[in-house]
Amino acid sequence: MPQTPLTLTTTLEDSRLIPPATLRGLRGLGIGSVGQLLAHLPTRHEQLEAETTIAELVPGAICHVRGEITATRPTRGPRPRFEAVLHDGTGRLDLVWFNQVYLSDKIAPGVRLRVQGKVAKRGPMLQMSNPRPEVLNPEDEPERSDGRIRPVYPASEDIASRKIEYAVQKILPAALPLVEDHLSPAFREQRALPELREAYRMLHAPQSPEEALAGRRRLAYDELLLLQLGVAMKRAHLRAHLRAPALDAGDVVFARIVKRLPFALTPGQRSVIEEIRADLSQARPANRLIQGDVGSGKTAVALCALLMAVASKHQGALLAPTEILAEQHFASISKLLGDSKVRLALLTGSTPASEREATTSKLEAGELDIVVGTHALLSEDVRFRSLAVAIIDEQHRFGVAQRAQLRASASDGFATPHVLVMTATPIPRSLALTLFGDLDISTIRGLPPGRTPIETRVLSSHDRVLAYNTLKARIEAGEQGYVVVPAIDPTGVESPSGPLVDIRTVVNAMESGLLQGKRVAALHGQLERGTREAVMERFRSGVIDCLVATTVIEVGVDVPNASVMIVEHADRFGLAQLHQLRGRVGRGKAKGTCYLVADPTTPEGQARLAVMEQSSDGFVLAEKDLEIRGFGEVFGTRQSGLPPFRIADPFRDRELLLMARTDAQAMIDASPNLLGKDELLLRKRLMKAHGKSLALADVG
Ligand code: ADP
Ligand code: MG
């Protein structure tokens, strides 16, 4: 019977190239077909040194030898170490491992061992310190390494990287010719990108480290290009098909709006508002990201935009990520609007049903001008008479999907409102382009006058009393403060009182006695709205000296009299988050001080906190955070709506990203739906990768 030809969708089982045990292991990793195995890429490559004999060893060089262990000696005590002697018939090599006495479980006389490390001469003896050991199986001893580069694959308990490597090598000759490229030879040549099948070969079977890099570069480019294409296609579609109300943003209206504010706008606020004015006067929906460091005055900018909608007899909505923030925006906007005739309402998940009904029917009838709220504003029963401006505060908690929903919620007459997104987590520009590539970007530079920089100090938990003493002294001088902790409730955690306890939770902190005699209240997301509002109100009016809070206060809370913040377990928070948190103090006349209490156990943890002491610039911190932790950690799954990357790291691959972005824009400009006959494969791959998440189906 003739065998059907192999394709990329052929199951590995049908390919008859892979042994059953390996098949099972691969299945556990979600790999069932030839194509899936080809797409299972190594995370890194190991350069294997060619093996030598002990007689050939050169002191000072990194070498690779194998032999038999003839003696071992573990030494415990304050400087534990494990020593062993290796013989290979040509000579003797001494091995020593510091602090790794557990190796004595694996390495004993008679064991065949391969080691890699740097050789040193000790008197007449040759020695390797802390070499990398690999115990060899005498029945199945691997061939002597010839110095090639080995791919290291994501593996599991059931299947080791080596087994995956063998399986990949088995299918490569048949699979590679099946890979079709979606980029033309001329296009690739201009960008020095290898052909797609060659890129897979370079990653799975590189002949040099440079090849592995070149293969990775091609696939990372493809990943970035597909996302940028999706974003550009979406954007072109929005531009071409969606209409928004063109607002009257003329000088007369604008002057009236600005006069409402109790302060003169900073130059940074003014230039961003100018950009918004230009946007809102167009019949094309604005889609703009406004970044500004903590305290740069984004609320005033938002209010100006909302009032432009109202001035043209439309409505405006302000969405906040948390109820506390929505409540606070509502309070401060009410105050700013004072005696004006603008009709304002608050709508959140805790709004009582009757009030909610009244508010939604007024919104639909056009009897409200501005509504402030949370996700609750996105639900289906909320309809606007004529929503012209929607502002989303603190973008990183809302994803692309929510923005799409907001567009859809606009009711008859106009298809979609102008959308402005505000974020205080400044994102390096190149990244902002990727993550929010369908947005225009404005940056509020500078802070309102009169701010003194916040002093930040890192303390170990042994020194925390210092921080609490400062806090108490400031409270006695009439100021207020915050203690921030990672969690609410110490389930099962003993919390003895005293300065040396582990303060991990709101309850720990309240019971610690560290703020004895001061008026302290807890604030966290599990409190009822009424309680929460009452606590905030009492704090704002000075009846409470100190809030003990979780990160619910991270964004937006604005109490100028609060001057000291203590963050417990500060190493558990990201840099951007710490920067947000400390932005709660130093908003008034008193100097702001922030204590970061932590006992970081890794050099990385220490480095991150040191950065907080050194820099007060949110942009610098955001870059550092990315540098130290990498893109995946900073914008990992916890944040919704951000695209995941398999190969590319948009921060480290910035140049590739910019290239992909330029290329994508040029392609879409030339062919908005990618329906040209040379583009069909590219389009197919684009739809597979992003068609759903970017809702591209209705685009082409
Ligand atoms: P953020 O950008 O962090 O949201 P806010 O909008 O909360 O900042 O503003 C921080 C504080 O600065 C508020 O108390 C606000 O009233 C004040 N503020 C904003 N703009 C100005 C300005 N141009 N001059 C003086 N104070 C301002
Ligand atoms: Mg704000």
Number of strands: 21
Radius of gyration: 31 Å
Tell me the fraction of residues in β-strands, as a range: 15-25%
Number of helical elements = 22
CATH class category label of the domain at 455-615: Alpha Beta
Mean pLDDT: 86
How does the helix and strand content classify structurally? alpha/beta
Shape designation: globular
Uncertain residue ranges: 409-414, 490-500, 637-641
Kindly report the name of the CATH homologous superfamily of the domain at 455-615: P-loop containing nucleotide triphosphate hydrolases
Ligand identities? adenosine-5'-diphosphate, magnesium ion
In whole angstroms, how far apart are the ends?
44 Å
CATH third-level topology of the domain at 455-615:
Rossmann fold
CATH architecture of the domain at 455-615: 3-Layer(aba) Sandwich
Structure description:
By secondary structure, the chain is α/β, with parallel strands linked by helices. Among the domains are: 1-46 and 165-178, no CATH class; 49-147, Nucleic acid-binding proteins (OB fold (Dihydrolipoamide Acetyltransferase, E2P)), CATH 2.40.50.140; 251-281 and 297-423, P-loop containing nucleotide triphosphate hydrolases (Rossmann fold, 3-Layer(aba) Sandwich), CATH 3.40.50; 455-615, P-loop containing nucleotide triphosphate hydrolases (Rossmann fold, 3-Layer(aba) Sandwich), CATH 3.40.50. It contains 22 helices and 21 strands. It has a seven-stranded parallel beta sheet, sandwiched between helices. A hairpin with a 5-residue loop joins strand 2 (62-75) and strand 3 (81-87). Helix 6 (196-204) crosses helix 7 (209-241), helix 8 crosses helix 10 and helix 14 (429-435) packs across helix 21. The two termini are 44 Å apart. Residues 409-414, 490-500 and 637-641 have low confidence and may be disordered. Residues 298-299, 556 line the site of magnesium ion (MG). Adenosine-5'-diphosphate is lined by residues 263-266, 269, 292, 294-300, 424, 448, 558, 587.
